[in-house]
Amino acid sequence: MAAFQDTREHTEQKVMVHLLTEIERNPSFTQRGLASELGIALGLMNQYLKGCVTKGWIRASQVSPRRIAYFLTPEGFKEKSHMVTSYLARSLTFFRDARTQCDALFKECQRKGWQKIAFVGEGDLADIACLVAQGAGLDVLVIHREADNLKVFDAVLITDVVNPQATYDFLKDKVTFDRLLILDLLHISRMPCVTKEVQ
Q1: Which domain holds residue 177?
Q2: Residue 8 banded pLDDT, cuts 50, 70, 90
Q3: N or C: which end of the chain has fewer CB within 10 A?
Q4: Is the Cβ–Cβ distance between 12 and 60 less than 8 Å?
Q5: Do 178 and 107 fall within a single domain?
């Protein structure tokens, strides 16, 4: 859950940085166009904008009955600067941690003679793992967790940052324990989920 929370906050911060940058660059943008560019729903874009107005980061001005222009306030410029700094620091920390952990894991794979590794989960972590794997001379393929051909791989690495625990829970019965690889930064629990029966 912690990895999901970090990822969600990181994504929200990325959206906010992009939003404030776009307002600074082009005050007459359309909400629909920016929502599409960011890959979020129009309603969510509206919520982000309302939140920025409430916090005093942007000011809205009615240009025409169907058009609103947004402007960054001095507080908005200051907040954007803080967000960019924080976003870059978190991104670099994530990259360093992912690279270090992948490197250690892939050295262990080489020691065991494992050459074909499947990555389950697309995105930044899979991209970082691919780069490290190339340097280690491993043969990797990013696949979906529902893939049927897991047995053709020497090992499977979870690279899903959105819901890593659910991906692990799905794969744990399909891949042997020692060949299902996880990175510490995902905070995946290998403990079985125990539920008590209510009497």
Answers
A1: 96-186
A2: low
A3: C
A4: no
A5: yes
